[in-house]
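Entry 14. Structure prediction run on the chain below.
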Amino acid sequence: MTLKIDIVEGAAPYEQVRAQIAEQARSGALPVGHRLPTVRGLAESLGLAANTVAKAYRALETDGVIETRGRNGTFVAAADSAAARELAAAAQAYAERARRLGAAQDEAVAAARDALRAAYGQ
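Output returned:
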């Protein structure tokens, strides 16, 4: 697992950790059942506070991307169907591109709705 945190210009560090692990799990780079580093271990390797990584892990667990098995550790959870993974990856890529372009969230959602209407012939 490779994570890169951009403290200067990126999103909040916990969000960068969350997004990168989620993307790697969706893409299969982190296979189902892969054991993740401990919160403290990952925090030390990234130069972050343990609470920052813990917050990212909690968000990932809430999203169903990872699961904690008590003292056994934290693992990548069983993935959805391939189509659902691909759809989530496309949505993530769109969201990141819209943010980089400086679009407000409501503008990005409106553009996505317009594209969906056109694609579905509505």
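The chain has five helices and three strands.
Filed with the rest of this week's runs.
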